[in-house]
Amino acid sequence: MEEVRVRIAPSPSGNLHVGTARTALFNYLFAKKNHGKFVLRIEDTDAERTSQEYIDNIFDSLKALGLNWDEGPDVGGPYGPYTQSERFDIYPKYVQQLLDSGYAYECFCTPEELEAEKEEATRNKKPYVYSKKCENLTEEEKAKLRAEGRKPAIRFNIAKAQKAFHDSSILKFNDLVKGELHMDTDLLGDFVIQKSNGAPTYNFAVVIDDMLMKISHVIRGEDHISNTYKQILIYEALGVEVPQFGHLGMILAPDRSKLSKRHGATAVSDFVKEGYLTEALINFVALLGWAPSDGEEIKPVEKIAEDFRINEISSSNSIFEYDKLKWMNSHYIKMLPMDELKKRLMPYLEKYDLSELTDEQFTRMVEVTREPLVLLSDITDAVTYFFGDSVEIEPEVQKDVLDTETSQEVLKEYIEQSKDWVYEEENLHEKLDAFRGYFKEKGIKPKVTMWAIRAAVTGRTRGADMTATLAILGKEKVEKRIKAAIK
Length: 487
Ligand code: GLU
Fold this sequence. Notes:
This protein has helices at 18-33, 52-64, 91-100, 111-123, 139-147, 158-165, 202-212, 225-238, 268-274, 278-286, 301-307, 322-335, 338-345, 359-369, 378-382, 395-402, 405-417, 425-441, 446-458, 466-485, and strands at residues 5-8, 37-40, 104-107, 153-156, 170-175, 179-184, 192-194, 217-221, 244-248, 251-252, 318-319. The protein has 487 residues and is mainly alpha-helical. Among the domains are: 91-248, 3-Layer(aba) Sandwich (Rossmann fold), CATH 3.40.50.620; 336-380, no CATH class; 389-485, Orthogonal Bundle (Arc Repressor Mutant, subunit A), CATH 1.10.10.
């Protein structure tokens, strides 16, 4: 079998979208499964919408997800350059080939003329297809138009290519994901392959690039299906082999509309900023249209690659369930080894003065706060009371807990009894036990006793293990906070 070569070809007009990440992943998995090559090509021909910042974001996001490419702009490869804007001198030769063989023609129509055609179609309630007005211009007519200063665009002659290679106007192909697809190419309209300024259009550049980069399988979103018909005809007109195509269903928001920022993060880097682990995100994204044969959903990419089969991808749309991603994320956080977790939490702890804690205290703090984390960023709020001399008291905690007579009594007694306590967990454990016992004899529930202490020390009614919290904070801070809570 010829070598499997697939590619991801993002346009850098924004940060890497999760949808593109999924397409990249399925290409990557297909390459891994078939011992093939995964190529990254940057399609930056739309100079106005392109920026270096977006290109960097695409590189960084794919790398962070573990989707490393075998060939690409940075690593090179035998079929470079891999950045479309550096390939501009490659395309004209193939445009000429199509002009010479009659599968393309020069079009001198002005934007105004084309607009008028479109308006006419709208008036007649017909779908717009180009009138082919310029298909049969004579050399004389063309020369005259050139003399007027008009520069031609080049259009592909659909009907001519369709007739040459197919029995009717119906074009069929076998999609790897969706099965047989077909379309009446009369509805496509002769599309532009080279603009009047000499730049190739997407549909043309993509064919030339995929052909020269020896791409064997084109796996991409189903929004490209109508382009695929055009691209197949270009391959045929050029007389080269047509790659196999596979189109993935769309990713929809939980409300079944197009996934957009109003639903939550959509760019990989935004998910990371919000505190998602790239391991969780890529695992989640793999399940958008694919399911593991053993039903075991939590799986690293290497394991998914062993199990992956392209014909098992669902041809329908997938729903992006943010709640499920959160569940997966909390699972992945639980699985992280302590040292790794500490490293990953760092960006979310920037507002704290970490020098307040020894390494040991810091580790213990993470140990006692990690369990409920859903997002890495949840740590910011979870550890807030481990820092500073004073603590912010939630208003209800003040009213419902600290203001009660019982609490005030507990706190005063704490200051008395704890004078010589050693703030070390084992010791504190014993002392607190005795302290609760002391109040229990006075008819105060142990729970109530602890609430008073927790409220004064953390400003909250729930949080990390109390003994550990007191030990990490140390005598000085604890006493300051308790004294501040006593009226
Ligand atoms: N640059 C195109 C896009 O981002 C690539 C489409 C394709 O894979 O051919 O949609």
